[in-house]
Amino acid sequence: MKKENLWRTALAQIQLDISEANFNTWFKETNISTLKRDKAVVAVPNAFVKEWIQSKYHKIILKSLKDLNKSIKSVDYIVSHSTTTPQENKEDKKIINQMEFQEIATDHQTGLNPKYTFDNFIIGPFNELAHAAGSAVSDSPGSIYNPLFLYSKTGLGKTHLLQAVGNKIKNNIKKKRVFYIPAQKFISEIISAIRNNKMDEFKYRYKDIDVLIIDDIQFLSGKEKTQEEFFHTFNELYEKNKQIILSSDRHPKSISALTDRLRSRFEGGMIADIGYPDTETRAAILKTKAQEKDFSLDDEVCYYIAENIQKSIRELEGILNKLIIQQQLTQKSIDINTTKKIFDDINQLSTVSFTFNKILKTVTDFYDVGERDVMGSSRKREVVKSRQVVIYFLRKDLNYSYSYIAKKIGGKDHTTVIYSYSKIEKEIQKNNEIKEEISHIKENLMSV
């Protein structure tokens, strides 16, 4: 497989493992610059992206490439200001057209992808409230449901709906200035502005926006300076009747380390969740995406996929991308047996194995606390809670004994461990907030 196709195939897999906003933010304008023996060198557009990808996504990238090419043992990263894809032959171009990723069509002024519209957004019982709210806002921005806060687990269409609202406003109300940005990019802009003494420029850029759309707002958790700046930006826009649209992977009440004043602002407008689509809706979504990619999808294959992928629209598209690549590489049409074989391969690759270190890192990342603090004697409320959640997972998923957990967690007394486990177990039964947090952490563990 040529390096261009190898990278695009790897990206199809990476899309399954991270949020859509993060994929668009960090994997834009990347490619494999060289592929020699057992090493792939990935080119990225700047040093900031290089540092972020290395620290956050290296394991996912390496795994995706090794799954496709067993000889690859390591991945390096270089900064290249020319990350355009080399000239493809006719067959390569056909694959690339079908595998075209979202960021290629992004409008750099608005951050919006014109492919995301209400016309190709499939509506079902799981998302009709969110769709209705988004549609109402797009007709009358700033005067109804402000802010609009959408939340759901990853891969269920939040980004599509956010951008559909933005695109409709941009196209129908020409004078409105619309801007979409993933939260992590917003955070990096603030950090850069602070470092370079350019906060006035940052504030000026946002003060004239008519519709501000921020995706994955939960990443503001624990970032006090960013929250402060966003609070001022939010207030300035809100007081001018500018529309604010936010998305998150959880309800505002479940976003940890968020200031009360921001949480209050988020809860002051319309909050709508997106649930899981039913089988018929998943099949309809899959058919729509196949048509967009000019790919013929057999009904039996379509319903088999819809029945076996129940909790993520993004996973549906990831499987579709795999089928497209399989057909292009083998020059054979996709039947039900080929589809089942691909599912078997995926199931073998996705066998989950939790470890102590994986649990510790995932929990501390979620609550934005230090691993050393959790392992130490800190009595700060957020650290104690994180420690108790780590203990819960060690007991629940790894079946460690209480005495062994006590030794692993900085030599704590085993009665403290018993209390911590029991406390979280009871909280899950009566507290929806902690129940949602545990659910999100479990999902994160399974995607690491």
Overall description:
There is one protein chain. This protein is α/β, with parallel strands linked by helices. It folds into 4 domains: about 5-85, DnaA, N-terminal domain (GMP Synthetase, Chain A, domain 3, 2-Layer Sandwich); about 130-275, 3-Layer(aba) Sandwich (Rossmann fold), CATH 3.40.50; about 280-350, Helicase, Ruva Protein, domain 3; about 355-445, Orthogonal Bundle (Chromosomal Replication Initiator Protein Dnaa, Chain: A), CATH 1.10.1750.10. It has helices at about 5-15, 20-25, 45-55, 60-70, 90-100, 130-140, 160-170, 185-195, 200-205, 225-240, 260-265, 280-290, 300-310, 315-330, 335-350, 355-365, 370-375, 380-395, 400-410, 415-430, 430-445, and strands spanning about 30-35, 40-45, 75-80, 150, 180, 210-215, 245-250, 270-275. The strands form 2 sheets. The protein has a 5-stranded parallel beta sheet, sandwiched between helices. It has a 3-stranded mixed beta sheet with strand order 1-2-3. It starts with a helix and ends with a helix. The model is unreliable at about 85-105 (pLDDT under 50).
CATH topology of the largest domain: Rossmann fold
**Considering the protein shown, what is the CATH homologous superfamily of the largest domain?**
P-loop containing nucleotide triphosphate hydrolases
Order of helices and strands: HHEEHHEHHEHEHHEHEHEHHHHHHHHHH
Which class best fits the helix and strand makeup? Answer: alpha/beta
Helix content: 55-70%
* Low-confidence regions: 84-104
Cα-to-Cα separation, first versus last residue: 26 Å
Largest sheet: 5 strands, parallel
SS strand fraction: 5-15%
So what's the CATH class of the largest domain? Alpha Beta
Number of strands: 8
Task: Return Rg in Å.
Answer: 23 Å
How many domains make up the coordinates?
4
Strand order, sheet with most strands? 5-6-7-4-8
